[in-house]
């Protein structure tokens, strides 16, 4: 065997499930320096690194890992951040198993190198040291507007600032981060880490205007008319879907967005010190099985629910959530009602949820896409005692910003039509992330922001050259 | 930061702020609202834009102290800053020159949001009958301002302490009897009052617009906390409204949904009072 037998992958120290299900502190505790160096030593330093092909923002993976193996963490941080503006976040929430780590050669015979954990370790180390100000190109004296301060917008803004643009981010909420702040819970992604990474963008000179709803207070054409050379739309997929079943407006039925935003962004778990209340009953049903559903279920447990059920109409294998999140949810005591779907939410005389009627499914023959679609079993209806329902069946594009621009081409779902590099039907207007693709991952949104930054630079430079002639 | 430049106290619980928020003032239209967050620990509170001054860059909000959030807000003074102000939000009122007179009814703090709508209706050339009402004289405000934007103003109090004794619904019936060509009615106030108005106008088949005031959080359509049942459809009041056809609104459901956080609101009030006595919250 040409590859020598690799040592085992370093495990991630975690909080005990029995303890952590009662607190909002981070579950995964991170590597020590010794563990990180040991893990970095497992990397083969491939000449043609496959892992990089799996990373949507093209992080210099073998290079930064080499620096970790040598114990030169400052160098590792510089290499890491050359391509990724938000490494402490990506190291925590990326689905590495289907991206960089899926391509790792070591993973063929053994477990892949823990690239995400190493990324997290380096970013956390640098935060503790205090990050130096990144290098910037000379100022270009040109302004670009970025709409939405989620992962796509933040990445686009960071790359444009590095290229020398004056960037202003317009954000509807009172803080930056988008889903990183309101959606992903504290126990997976501590908010002080998100805030620190965003502070690094401020050091690059990125200006942030909060409480600015593009589509209401201003619109894309006004921005273009007011001196911005280009606009990047990264407004995300923030419109919650509901099931459309009877009883969905009863008291005690929440969208996952509402439930998580109250808890995370508004710090409802510190009520009443923080004034925003969040309600959770004793028996909670979470509809859906994506990452957001896992987040909502685990949050409900931490807020004191006695029983939390994930209700999903397919089987465990089809659940869209990351394997790690499903495992964490299991460990913490979340119960899974698979091949099950609600048909009606039943209320009491005060308009509160008291039960839910569900129906059992079985998996039918594979359809054209090869996926076995669930088929309801006749007569299998049953009633579940439930007092809270959290609907987590996905989100659509929020139309506030797009509705205000009549000449912006949208598809039938309301997503912006954009090419690979984010060019839309309006010259100078670019878009990327969930508003283009529909709800996807943090890192894909970041990749889209990065590509658009490059395309915006080309566009603005070409326009300037044209003017000069 | 958004400074409070003027404060007016209408009653022990009803207060007015002029807030410097030039970007909101520049775009505000009748029927729209904004959301504020007083400080880092505060909740997001939706308030209707009762008036705006584009040149001064200010918006006017009138609010009634009900829970902990509005109580704390009421303690702020001129010169204090509000941490976050976001707006204008919601769809503006549909203002046009109607074929026939219109009536606009404001109950309690609902007098505030009807003012810019009445003004816009009058400016569009409508004959505007305005009816304002409150439980008692102490809770009334803006009588002169309302008179200046209406063809006729009727003031009512439930207890007869000022103006005509009785409910705004009775005053509206009188207006309709004298003007059966009434074309549109706007009603803004507490949900029971809006429901009562829609019940009065339903047999007349006069289009009746209400401005829903459900619980809200973000105010930009991302959570659905504010959803209301309108006909067979679920609507988000913050982006599809807040104005809806009152004859289609399920008020019973809307009122139940207002009580979702009733217990928590009590706890928050208790905590606020406890804090005043020098106690901590015990959260950490």
UniProtKB/TrEMBL annotation, chain A:
First-tier enzyme category under EC: oxidoreductase
Residue ranges constituting the FAD/NAD(P)-binding domain according to the UniProt record: 142-449
Domain Dihydroprymidine dehydrogenase intervals: 20-130
GO molecular function: glutamate synthase (NADPH) activity; iron-sulfur cluster binding
Enzyme Commission number(s) from the entry: 1.4.1.13
UniProt keyword terms in alphabetical order: Oxidoreductase
Pfam families membership: Fer4_20 (PF14691), Pyr_redox_2 (PF07992)
PANTHER family found in the cross-reference section: GLUTAMATE SYNTHASE [NADPH] SMALL CHAIN, GLUTAMATE SYNTHASE [NADPH] SMALL CHAIN-RELATED
Protein name: NADPH-dependent glutamate synthase
UniProtKB/TrEMBL annotation, chain B:
Keyword Cell division attributed: no
Binding site for FAD: 62-64, 69-70
GO biological process, one term: pyrimidine nucleotide biosynthetic process
One GO molecular-function entry: oxidoreductase activity
Highest taxon, organism lineage: Bacteria
PROSITE patterns: FAD_FR
CDD domains with a match to the protein in the record: DHOD_e_trans_like1
Cofactor(s) of this protein: FAD; [2Fe-2S] cluster
Residues where [2Fe-2S] cluster binds: 223, 226, 238
Keywords tagged on the record: 2Fe-2S, FAD, Flavoprotein, Iron, Iron-sulfur, Metal-binding
Note accompanying the cofactor annotation: Binds 1 FAD per subunit. Binds 1 [2Fe-2S] cluster per subunit.
Residue ranges annotated for the FAD-binding FR-type domain, each copy included: 1-95
Gene3D superfamilies assigned to the protein according to its UniProt record, in alphabetical order: Nucleotide-binding domain of ferredoxin-NADP reductase (FNR) module, Translation factors
Keyword Iron-sulfur: yes
PANTHER family recorded: DIHYDROOROTATE DEHYDROGENASE B (NAD(+)), ELECTRON TRANSFER SUBUNIT (PTHR43513), DIHYDROOROTATE DEHYDROGENASE B (NAD(+)), ELECTRON TRANSFER SUBUNIT-RELATED (PTHR43513:SF3)
UniProt-recorded name of the protein: Sulfide/dihydroorotate dehydrogenase-like FAD/NAD-binding protein
Source species of the chain: Heliobacterium mobile
């Amino acid at each position: 065997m040409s590859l020598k037998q690799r040592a085992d992958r370093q495990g991630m120290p975690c909080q005990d499930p029995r303890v952590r299900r009662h607190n909002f502190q981070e579950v995964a505790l991170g590597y020590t320096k010794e563990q990180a160096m040991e893990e970095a030593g497992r990397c083969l330093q491939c000449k043609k690194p496959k892992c990089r092909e799996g990373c949507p923002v093209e992080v210099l993976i073998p290079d930064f890992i080499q620096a970790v193996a040598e114990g030169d963490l400052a160098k590792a941080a510089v290499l890491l951040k050359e391509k990724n503006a938000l490494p402490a976040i990506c190291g925590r929430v990326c689905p590495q198993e289907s991206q960089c780590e899926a391509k790792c050669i070591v993973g063929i015979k053994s477990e892949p190198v823990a690239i995400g954990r190493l990324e997290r370790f380096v970013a956390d180390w640098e935060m503790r040291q205090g990050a130096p100000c990144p290098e910037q190109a000379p100022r270009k004296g040109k302004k670009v507007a970025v709409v939405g301060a989620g992962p796509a917008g933040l990445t686009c803004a960071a790359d444009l600032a590095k290229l020398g643009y004056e960037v202003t981010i317009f954000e509807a909420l009172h803080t930056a981060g988008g889903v990183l702040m309101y959606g992903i819970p504290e126990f997976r992604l501590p908010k002080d880490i998100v805030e620190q990474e965003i502070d690094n963008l401020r050091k690059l000179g990125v200006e942030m205007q909060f409480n600015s709803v593009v589509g209401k207070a201003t619109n894309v054409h006004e921005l273009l008319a007011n001196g911005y050379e280009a606009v990047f739309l990264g407004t995300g997929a923030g419109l919650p879907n509901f099931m459309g079943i009877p009883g969905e407006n009863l008291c005690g039925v929440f969208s996952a967005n509402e439930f998580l935003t109250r808890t995370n962004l508004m710090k409802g778990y510190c009520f009443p010190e923080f004034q925003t209340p969040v309600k959770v009953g004793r028996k909670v049903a979470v509809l859906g099985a994506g990452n957001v559903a896992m987040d909502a279920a685990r949050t409900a447990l931490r807020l004191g629910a006695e029983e939390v059920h994930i209700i999903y109409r397919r089987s465990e294998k089809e659940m869209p959530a990351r394997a790690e999140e499903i495992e964490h949810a299991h460990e913490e005591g979340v119960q899974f009602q698979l091949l099950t779907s609600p048909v009606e939410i039943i209320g009491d005389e005060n308009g509160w949820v008291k039960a839910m009627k569900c129906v059992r499914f079985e998996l039918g023959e594979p359809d054209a896409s090869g996926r076995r679609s669930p088929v309801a079993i006749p007569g299998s209806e049953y009633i579940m005692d439930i007092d809270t329902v959290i609907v987590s069946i996905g989100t659509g594009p929020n139309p506030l910003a797009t509705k205000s621009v009549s000449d912006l081409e949208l598809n039938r779902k309301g997503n912006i039509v954009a090419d690979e590099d984010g060019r839309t039907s309006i010259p100078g207007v670019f878009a990327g992330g969930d508003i283009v693709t529909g709800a996807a991952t943090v890192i894909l949104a970041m990749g889209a922001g990065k590509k658009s930054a490059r395309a915006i630079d080309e566009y603005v430079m070409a326009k300037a050259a044209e003017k000069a002639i | 930061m958004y400074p409070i430049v003027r404060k007016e106290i209408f009653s022990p619980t009803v207060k007015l702020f002029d807030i410097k928020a030039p970007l909101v003032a520049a775009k505000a239209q009748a029927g729209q609202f904004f959301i504020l967050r007083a400080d880092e620990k505060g909740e997001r509170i939706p308030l209707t834009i009762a008036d705006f001054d584009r040149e001064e860059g200010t918006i006017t909000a009138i609010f009634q102290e009900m829970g902990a959030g509005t109580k704390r807000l009421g303690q702020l003074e001129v010169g204090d800053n509000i941490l976050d102000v976001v707006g204008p939000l919601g769809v503006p009122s549909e203002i046009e020159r109607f074929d026939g007179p219109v009536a606009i009814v404001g109950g309690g703090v609902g007098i505030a949001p009807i003012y810019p709508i009445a003004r816009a209706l009058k400016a569009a050339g409508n004959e505007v009958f305005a009816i304002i009402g409150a439980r008692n004289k102490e809770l009334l405000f803006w009588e002169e301002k309302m008179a200046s934007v209406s063809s006729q103003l009727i003031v009512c109090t439930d207890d007869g302490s000022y103006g005509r004794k009785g409910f705004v619904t009775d005053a509206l019936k009188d207006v309709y009897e004298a003007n059966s060509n009434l074309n549109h009615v706007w009603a803004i106030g507490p949900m029971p009052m809006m429901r009562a108005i829609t019940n009065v106008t339903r047999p007349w088949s006069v289009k009746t617009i209400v401005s829903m005031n459900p619980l809200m959080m973000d105010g930009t359509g991302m959570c659905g906390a504010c959803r209301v049942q309108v006909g067979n459809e679920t609507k988000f009041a913050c982006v599809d409204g807040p104005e809806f056809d009152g004859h289609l609104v399920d008020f019973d459901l809307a009122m139940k949904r207002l009580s979702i956080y009733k217990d928590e609101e009590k706890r928050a009030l208790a905590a606020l009072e406890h804090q005043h006595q020098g106690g901590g919250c015990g959260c950490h």
